[in-house]
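re: ur question from earlier - yeah i can do the single chain one, its not a big deal. heres the input i used so u can compare w yours
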Amino acid sequence: MLIQILGAGCPKCKKLEANTREALAKKKIDADVVKVTDSEEIMGMGVIMTPALVIDGEVKSVGKVLTVDQIASQF
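and the output i got, formated as tokens:
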């Protein structure tokens, strides 16, 4: 499983990454978590607001920080 956190590194992006890692640990899922900071790459995925969460190429959330439980329900 590939999980991408899209954003420039703002506090909301960091919180989304932390929540994502916590959700993975909670569900005992091994996944690659990658931060994507390049604005052209982010826009190429159709995302215009960050932070965003992408799981296996599918955009799951844009412009908000999901809770651990909200993220865990996406797996």
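The longest helix spans residues 11-27. not sure if urs matches, ping me
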